[in-house]
Amino acid sequence: MTHVISIQSHVAYGYVGNRAAVFPLQRLGLEVTAINTVQFSNHTGYGAFTGDVFSPEHLQNVLDGVESLVGLSGVNAVLSGYMGDEGIGRAVLDSVDRVKQANPEALYCCDPVMGDIGRGFFVREGIPEWMRDHAVSRADIVTPNQFELGFLAGREVKTLDDALAATRALRAKGPKVVLVTSLELEGDEDEHIGMLVDAPAGSWRIATPRVDFVIPPNGAGDFTAAMFLAHSLRAGVTDEGPARALEQTAAAVHMLFEHTRRAGTRELAMIAAQQDIVSPTVTLHAEKVR
To answer: What is the Cα–Cα distance from 212 to 193, expressed in whole angstroms?
Structure first.
């Protein structure tokens, strides 16, 4: 059975971080070991929350316990998301090293959560630079949004050519595959939003109908990264594997958004959408652009 270690935040209420990643990964048939970087009552977008931030030592101690119990050679991938500070980041990369020492074929999928268009950076000062200079080069798969891609590649992303140049620059730093989410480029239709994947075998883009919300739900990026990792583990990261993973991920995200829109909730409608996450009732086709 495919086994993923997911190192992310945890909330008691709602679906962000590990709460947006673990359940859908399990519904797809993967074994998931969740290591939580925080435990909050709810995500911080509500303005008020309670809970605690865990130390880097806590993360390492939890992994120590897992390793002593079952070992790490059966781990196929590590998934990471929001990193509160550099100490947590170093603990994540140490975990990746330990897993890859036990299983050199294991993948590291880094979702470089830092900011977004219209919001700018929402992480602590120094984290974007640390992510760019340390985490990205160690990853096999990175999943930035358009804003994060521009920062990591050190260039503006407005057109498809800009995006492809940026993903190539990012892959030159080390990752095999770059998935760009929430992509809005010049010339694109307003009623659609895109994703782009760039890999050694080529680049593909896909457009999904835009789903409008009164308050956009948090956690969509966490869910997307988890889905793309899961489907990449099945399809592979060479040849047309990234294109197939993109298609399956985009379909799952669209179905989750549709369920959330119908529910009228601020949180992702994860439970209602679970069957459509596993077997989407829409088929989306990726267009090869390189």
So the answer is: 11
**Terminal C-alpha separation, the chain:** 34
Handedness of CA 290, 109, 146, 171 (dihedral sign): negative
Domain residue spans in the chain?
3-288
Of 193, 165, 191, 159, the closest CA to residue 178 belongs to: 165
Name every residue whose Cβ is closer than 8 Å to that of residue 267 and which is 6 or more positions away in sequence. Answer: 13, 14, 15, 217, 218, 219, 260
Whole-angstrom distance, CA of residue 116 vs CA of residue 286: 24
Amino acid identity at 253: V
pLDDT, tens digit (0-9, with 9 covering 90-100), for 22-79: 999 999 999 999 999 999 999 998 999 999 999 999 999 999 999 999 999 999 999 9
Question: Cβ of 284: how many Cβ atoms within 10 Å?
Answer: 19
What separation in angstroms does the CA of 260 have from each of 16, 263, 270, 274?
A: 14, 5, 8, 12
CA triple 151-157-210, angle to 5 deg: 110
Would you call 36 helix, strand, or coil by DSSP? strand
Cβ within 8 Å of residue 137, ≥6 positions away: 173, 174, 175
Residue 242 near residue 233, CB atoms below 8 Å: no
Closest residue by Cα to residue 22 from 35, 39, 13: 35
Structure tokens belonging to residue 112: 């470089």
> Which pair of structure tokens corresponds to residue 26?
């399990």
Per-residue pLDDT of 96-119, as tens digits, reads 999 999 999 999 999 999 999 888
pLDDT attached to residue 119:
87
Rounded to two decimals, what is the model's pTM? Answer: 0.97
Q: Is residue 197 a contact partner of residue 181, using CB atoms and an 8 Å limit?
A: no
Q: Does domain 3-288 have CATH number 3.40.1190.20?
A: yes
